[in-house]
Amino acid sequence: MSLLEVRDLRVSFDTDDGTVYAVQGMSFSVEAGQTLGIVGESGSGKSVSTQAIMGLTPGATITGEALLDGANLLTMSEGQLQSIRGSKVSLIFQDPLTSLHPLYRVGSQIAEAMLVHGHVAKAEARARAVELLGQVGIPEPAKRVRDYPHQFSGGMRQRVMIAMALALEPKLIIADEPTTALDVTVQAQILELLARMQRDYQTAVILITHDLGVVADVADEVVIMYAGRPMERAGVEAAFVEPHHPYTQGLLQSIPSYSGRTGKLRPIRGYPPSLMHQIDECPFASRCPLVHDECRVAPPPLKPVGTRPGHLSACVLPSDRVGLVAAEASQAAAGAAER
Amino acid sequence: MTTTEVDLEAQTSKGDLLLEVQDVAKYFPVRNNALFNRAQASVKAVDGVSLSLRVGETLGVVGESGCGKSTLARLIAALHPVTSGRIRFKGREITTLDRRHMRPLRRSIQMVFQDPYGSLNPRRRVGSILSDPFAVHTQMSRAEMREQVRDLMSRVGLSPEHYNRFPAEFSGGQRQRIGIARALALRPDLIICDEPVSALDVSIQAQIINLLEDLQDEFMLTYIFIAHDLSVVRHVSDRIAVMYLGKIVETGPVEEIYSSSRHPYTASLLSAVPVADRAFKNGRKARVILSGDVPSPQNPPTGCRFHPRCPKAQAICSSAEPPLEQKPGDPVGHLTACHFPVEAGEALALASREPTDAEDAEAPDAAGEQS
To answer: Dihedral (C-alpha) B260, B265, B270, B272: value to the nearest 10 degrees?
Structure first.
C-alpha cells in the first residue's frame, strides 16, 4: 500500500466572479521513503492539490479520496487533521520569512510542534531543537536557537523550516517550491540537505516546483500537471528521456537546452485555458500541435505508455510513441502544415 | 569636460563600439542612526566594473542576488549617478551630462524590467502607456501616435485591437510584450533587459526570448541581458560577465565561459544549476556545493571577495585582490580575476572542503546580524 494515495481529487473555489475549478481530477501516490515531484506552470493546481488534502484551503469544495496509511484525509474533522499535520505530514513553503513568526525565537517555534503533539517536557523539546538545528547545518546551534527569524539569511531560514518539519519525524514532507526564492548555490545546499535528511529519517517527500531541472535532480517519480489535471506520470528517467504527452514534450523543448543547442526555442503556442469552467476536452487540445478530433470528446484518462512500468500519459496518441526526437519531427511537420 | 550634445544620430554599424564602462563604482550610504541621520557605512553595490559592448551583440550578466548586476544596469541607463568611473556611449562621456543633455540619450538606452505587473500603471490603458515615449520625445500628433502604437503592438505580437485594454486584462507573458514594446518605441540602440523572463512560466519564457531575438535582428539592437537563469543567458548571449559582490570575476565569449570557466565561482555556479537535460547531465562535471551564503556587500571580505567560500583559497587570496586579466592559454577576451584559476580537467569538487562551523559563522548572515 502506498503511503499516500490520492484519487480523482477535485477542488473548486466560489469567488465573486464565479466558480474556479482549480483541480479537475488529480490522482497520484507516494511510496514510503520516496520523492515525488509535482511539476506544473502557474495555475496548474500543483499547490492547491496538496493544500486541499491537508485541509489548508478553507472554503473550497473538495471531492475525491486522499488515503494516508489507508485513512481518508478528506473526511476527517479539523481536529483529526490537526493531529496529523506536523506529526505525520509536515509542510515547507517557498518563503520561510512569512512562514516563521517574526516575534518568536526560532528555538521556541521548533519546540512548539513537539510540545503540542509530542507530550515532551519543555527542556527536552528545547534540547531537541538545538540538535535539529545542528543537523540541518546551522553553525553554533546552541546560540542560534535563541535568535529571531530576521537574524537568519534566506538559506538559513529555509534550513530552520526543514528542522521544524523534521521535529516530529513525519512520514511525509510536502515541500512547496522550497528553493524558488534562493540563489542557485544556496539552492544546491538546500536540495542536498533535504536529500540527506530524507535518507536519515526515511521520509517520503512531495516536491512541488515549476523548475524541471530541480525535479530531474531530486525526484524518483514525476507528475506533470496542467490545468488541474495530471498529464503524465513517470519515473524520472522516463519523464525526461521518453516523454509521451505533447505537453511534457513542449515543456522540455521550451527550456533553452543546457547542452548549448543553438537555434530558435520552440515555445508552446498560445496560453493555458481558463479554469472558470469545467474542461470537458483534453485541456491541452487548443495548444497541442498534434490535436485529433478524439481529443475534443472528453479528457483522455491516464493510460500506460512506453516501455517502462508505471509510465502513464493522458493522451490519445499511440502508447509506443515516446521520446523527444519523435516530438521534434512531428512538431516540425505540424509547423510546416500550418504554413 | 564641458558637455556637448551627444551625437545620437551618428550612424553605427554592426561591430562598432557602442558602450564603454570604465572602472565604475556605486556606493549606497547606509544610515544606521535615525537621530543624526549620518551615513555611517556604505554598501558597495558595484565596485570597479569595466566592460565594453559592440553594436548588435548581447552581453549576458549573471550572478546571485546582491552581486550588483541590477545596479550596474541602472548606472548604464543613467537611472543612478555613478560614485566614480566613466561610462561612454557612442564615444561620448555620459556620466557628467546634465538633465537637458541627458534627455536625447534616454531615447537611445531603454530598459525592460522583470516584473511586468509592477512596471505598468494599472490605471492606464495600454494604448496610453505606449504613447508616452512619443508624447515625451517627439512632436507627433495624436493620430500619428495612435498609428505608431498600433504598429508597435503588432510587432511584439499583441493584437492592436487591445489598444484600449488595461494591463490587468493581459497575462504575464503579454504584459512583458507591452514592456518590450514600450522599450522599443523610440528605436533605441541599447536595451537593458533586467531579468525579463524570470517571472514567466517556461513555455511563455521561450516565446519572449524568441521575440527579443527577432527584434534584435530586425532593428540591430544591442542587449545587456541580466538573469540568474544560466541556461537562458547561455541561449541569448554572445559574451558573458559573471559578477560576485560588486565585481566582475570572469568575462569572455559564451561558449568559452560555459565549457572552460577558469574562476572557481563561475565553475561552482554552473555546476549548481539543476538541469533537466539528461544527455548533458551525464557528461557534466561533478557538482561543487559551496559553503555559506554570499557575504554582505556592506562589509565585503578582504582580498579576493570569494575567498571565504572558495574551495581553492590559499593565504594570498585573503590579502591580495586578484586583477581581472587574461590567463595563460586563454583566448583574447577571456578574463579571470583569480590567483589560482581552475585548470582544464581539474575536479574542483575534490578540492572542496566540508563546511566547518567557524567558516560558516564568518561568512553568512552578516547582513542580518549587523543591523
So the answer is: 140
ipTM, two decimals, is 0.79
Q: Give A 52-71 residues with CB within 8 A of chain B.
A: none
The nearest CA of chain B is from the CA of A137 a distance in Å of 9
Give the nearest partner residue to B64 out of A156, A185, A216, using CB atoms. A185
Which sequence spans correspond to the domains of chain A?
A: 4-222, 227-259+269-338
CA–CA gap between residue B338 and residue B316 (Å, rounded):
11
B328 and chain A: CB distance < 8 Å anywhere? no
Residues 213-272 of B with CB under 8 A from A: 213, 228, 230-232, 234-236, 255, 258, 268-269, 272
Tell if the CB–CB gap between B201 and A271 is shorter than 8 Å.
no
Residue A311 · residue A233 · CB < 8 Å? yes
* Cβ-contact A258, A264 below 8 angstroms: no
Answer whether A188 touches B (CB < 8 Å): yes
Residue window 156-185, chain B: list those with CB within 8 Å of chain A. 171-173
How confident is the model at residue B335, as a pLDDT? 96
- Tell me the whole-structure pTM to 2 decimals: 0.83
Tell me the H-state helices in B185-293. 202-219, 230-236, 254-259, 264-272, 278-282
Contacts of A183 in chain B (CB under 8 A): 64-65, 228, 294
Helical H segments across chain A, by residue range: 46-53, 78-84, 96-99, 106-117, 122-135, 141-144, 154-166, 184-201, 212-218, 236-241, 246-254, 324-338
pLDDT digits (tens, 9 = 90+) for A166-210: 888 899 999 999 988 788 888 888 898 889 888 888 899 999 999
Half-sphere exposure of B316 toward its Cβ, with a 13 Å CA cutoff? 6
Rounded to the nearest angstrom, the gap between the alpha carbon of residue B144 and the centroid of all alpha carbons in its chain is 34
User: Facing residues of A92 across strands?
Assistant: A175
B141 in contact with A, Cβ within 8 Å: no
Chain B interface includes A119 (CB < 8 A): no
Q: How many CB atoms lie within 10 A of CB B241?
A: 25
Q: For the sheet with B239-244, list strands across it.
A: B109-112, B190-194, B222-226, B58-62, B239-244, B247-253, B335-336, B325-326
Q: Is B202 close to A152, i.e. CB distance below 8 A?
A: no
Backbone angles phi, psi at B100, to 5 degrees: -65, -40
Which CA distances in Å does B123 have to B126, B127, B182, B199? Answer: 9, 12, 16, 21
Question: pLDDT by residue (tens digit) across A61-93?
Answer: 999 999 999 999 999 999 999 989 888 999 998
Q: Using the beta-carbon criterion (under 8 Å), do B277 and A185 form an inter-chain contact?
A: no
- C-alpha cell recorded at residue A216: 530531474
Domain A4-222 CATH superfamily? P-loop containing nucleotide triphosphate hydrolases (3.40.50.300)
Residue B253, C-alpha cell as written in the block: 565569449
